[in-house]
Amino acid sequence: MAPSMKKAVSDAVTRRALLSRLVFSVPGFAYIAVFMLIPITYIFVYSFLQRGTYGGIVTNFNLDNYVRALDSLYIKVLFNSIGIALATTILAVAIGFPVAYAITLLPKKWQSLMLILIVLPFWTNFLIRTYAWIVLLNSEGIMNKALMGIGLISSPLEVLYTPGAVVIGLLYGYLPLMILPIYSALERIDPTLREAAINLGATRRESFFQITLPLSLSGAMVGSIFVFVPSVGNFIVPELLGGGKTVMVGNLIRDQFLKARDWPFGSVLALVLVAMLVGLFAIQAKVSRKVSGA
Question: How much is the pTM?
Answer without folding.
Answer: 0.84
